[in-house]
Amino acid sequence: PRRLKYGDEKSLKGKSIFNRKARRDVRTGIIPATMTDPDLRNTYSIIGICGISRRSAPVRFRITDATVDAELFAMEIEASISSKFLRAGDVLVLDNAANHSGKENNVLEDWLWEYHRIFALFLPARTPEWNPIELVWNCLEARLTNYDLQYVHGSNRVVKVTAKILSKISHSEVESFYRKSGVFEHH
């Protein structure tokens, strides 16, 4: 399992991930003004790969305001290899999305193996529960929903907070996501 890396992308819509509901202050009875931010209307995409090997960070990610297409996905795979997050002998597990194996990436599987000795394995259709990166995304969304934006300054608040949360996900958390996805059994 330590050689297995799971990848996928996630779309983040600011307005759907931040909890903007204000609650009445129990001491004063006053309902605070709801904070609005232009960043809440933006949509971002994240390309992420998670792994439990201690030789690298548990989650590697790229946040972009572009739509993830085959070219952008392939560029992130190349960057993951250059940074040594993906190494010879690793198995990169992906779903069957078109930007992973279709269109311009129909040669990705062969290229990974022939030039880098990284084996690409594609999950069956409609099996997100087998991919631990989906649990990383669930964890991210839960933490974003509870994050108080008033303490984040400047523009691109969603990006800043997302990067902070993903950077703090630990190896033990990713290991628990692996167990929950059935990658390996509980001990």
Tell me about this structure:
With about 190 residues, the protein is an alpha/beta fold. The protein is about 35% helix and about 20% strand. Strands 3-2-1-4-5 form a five-stranded mixed β-sheet, with helices on both faces. Helix 5 packs across helix 7 (about 170-180). It starts with a strand and ends in a 6-residue tail after the last helix. The mean pLDDT is about 85.
Question: Care to give the gist of this entry?
Answer:
The chain is 36% helix and 18% strand.
List keywords for this structure.
alpha/beta; 5-stranded mixed beta sheet; 36% helix
Order of helices and strands: EHEEHEHHEHHH
Unreliable spans are none
- pLDDT averaged over residues: 84
Tell me the span between the first and last alpha carbons.
Answer: 14 Å
Rg from Cα? 18 Å
Major sheet characteristics: 5 strands, mixed
Total of DSSP H or I helical runs spanning 4+ residues: 7
Helicity range: 25-40%
What overall form do the CA principal axes indicate? globular
- For the largest beta sheet, what order do the strands appear in spatially? 3-2-1-4-5
The proportion of residues in beta strands is: 15-25%
Tell me the total number of β-strands. 5
Look at the helices and sheets and give the structural class.
alpha/beta
